[in-house]
Amino acid sequence: MEKVIIYGCGGNYRYALLSGMIDSYDVVAYSDSNPKLWGLTANDSEVIPPEKINDYFYDAVYVTSEIHFEDIADTLKNRYGVPARKIKLLKISPLEDIKYKKAVNKNSPFNHAGAELSIGTNELTKIEERGSAGINEIESFWTDHTVHDDYFESANESREYCYTRFAMYPMLREFAGMDLSHDGEILLDYGCGPGNDLTWYSLQNHLKSIIGMDVSRTALKISQHRMALHNINNVRLIHKSEADVHIPLDDESVDFVNCQGVLMHTSSPGEILKEFYRVLNKKRKDSPNASIMVHNKDSIWYHLYAAYFLRFINNTYLADFEFQETQTLDVDEVFKRSTDTVHCPKAACFSIDEFSKMCSRAGFSKVDYRGGYPNSLEPGIARRYLKIALNDERLEDEHKEFLKEVTYDEKGYPMWGKKYCCIGGTYQLWV
Fold first, then answer.
1. Which residues touch 101 (CB under 8 Å, ≥6 apart)?
2. Quick one: DSSP state of residue 123?
3. What does the alpha-carbon distance between residue 125 and residue 141 come to, in Å, rounded to a whole number?
4. Which three-class secondary structure state does DSSP give residue 87?
5. Which of 50, 140, 362, 422 is close enough to 274 for a disulfide, judged by CB 3.0 to 4.6 Å?
6. Parallel/antiparallel/unpaired status of strands 424-430 and 366-373
7. What are the distances in angstroms from CA 340 to CA 165, 205, 337, 345?
8. 304 near 422, Cβ under 8 Å?
């Protein structure tokens, strides 16, 4: 087996590790140019600075970054004396569908003067300003860190990304009930972000109207552009303050609330749920009135990825937050830093029981937990590390008790009891 050093411990390395690519090599060391990573662990091994590479016997140094391969190869050869013939590229197939790469970069000229040109004569919906409580840390973060903050060149690319997103998050479409009919209804997408669900629901239904609401003006501008690409005119876009839980809509003025991946990042999720109940039409009883996804505590992500992988196997992810002793961190804190960058100010997770009770206290008569859908990492983490974690004395019993009960379906997706147990905890609610 080829003895190698893996150079580069970022996202591509994690994909290679979890996909099993690295298993085909005898890895003698991991290295990276970032000093914050030195001394931390990659695949349960210490990350070394590049000047120590030649302290090891190796057949090759595999570089994980294809984009920067040539520059890295030159540095390894000229500065650190690694023979050129031993520097190779580790070919990695990214887990995220490459279709999204066709989106226009947020810093391109298209984002500014050219943005209006691509929509032809279609009108840009005015963004209503209802944010009067001032900007807090959470609102500031999401204004600067909007999810998928690129503009699409065409309506076709925007539509295709809806399907790309479903492929990235298996079961999202099913669990969230995104194919249920909402013809003739008024739909609120709370935390609409860059307009993924605004686009999907508008194209799949004959809505009376749809309301996109967010604390991020950046996200709302992307939604504004995207609605214009599709010539969707029955839309309202509203900016509200994160610090103010009040939803600026009348009582019982909305037929359905969609809120995917938002409440766990808010200051007062329970109060916002009460606002959902207030604005929902109480006459509709034959189908769900709301679909909500929050981070699931009863999950592989919490009990294996955060509790074990990031603390003991691969704590390089937390290096930018300057955590040197991740083994001593509270698991909730590790989880918080593992989902939407280490600097995200609020990223809670809820057990099924905890969030169900929160919904009931808000007034909802029925709460149906659909399951926790996976992202691109969790199935691989479970297959590779679950048994190892159960036999590692460093992992606390609380997490082992959960992991002992995990099973797999025929496709290899992890389940806990009769429900899928990944991070995307999805609930349907009835008034």
1. none
2. P
3. 24
4. strand
5. 362
6. antiparallel
7. 17, 31, 7, 9
8. no
* Bridge partners (DSSP) listed for residue 414: 408
Q: What residue type is assigned to position 43 of the chain? A: N
Cβ–Cβ < 8 Å for 362, 412 = no
Residue 40 DSSP one-character state: S
The answer to whether 61 and 86 have CB atoms below 8 angstroms apart is yes
Q: Tell me the pLDDT of the chain (431 aa) as tens digits.
A: 999 999 999 878 888 887 788 989 999 999 999 998 998 889 888 999 999 999 999 999 999 999 999 999 999 999 999 999 999 999 876 543 333 333 443 433 333 333 443 566 677 899 999 877 678 999 999 999 887 778 999 999 999 999 999 999 989 999 999 999 999 999 999 999 999 999 999 999 999 999 999 999 999 999 999 999 999 999 999 999 999 999 999 999 999 999 999 999 999 999 999 999 999 999 987 899 999 999 999 999 999 999 999 988 988 877 765 545 555 678 999 999 889 888 899 999 999 999 999 999 999 999 999 999 998 889 989 999 999 999 999 999 999 999 999 999 999 999 999 999 999 999 999 99
Quick one: 128 exposed, middle or buried, by C-beta within 10 A (0-12, 13-18, 19+)?
A: middle
Strands in 414-416's sheet, in edge-to-edge order, are 406-408, 414-416, 419-420
Q: Quote the CA–CA distance of 175 and 290 in Å, as a whole number.
A: 12
Closest CA to 179 of 211, 201, 208: 201
- In angstroms, the Cα distances linking 52 to 49, 277, 311 are 6, 60, 25
Strands of 12-120 (E only): list them: 26-31, 41-42, 45-48, 60-63, 87-89
Amino acid at 301: W
Do residues 343 and 317 make contact, with C-beta atoms less than 8 angstroms apart? no
Q: How many CA atoms lie within 13 A of 26 on its CB side?
A: 7
DSSP of 279-331, one letter per residue?
HB-TT--SS-SEEEEEEBSSSHIIIIIIIIIIIII-GGGGGGGT-S-GGGS-H
The CA distance from 263 to 288, in Å, is 18
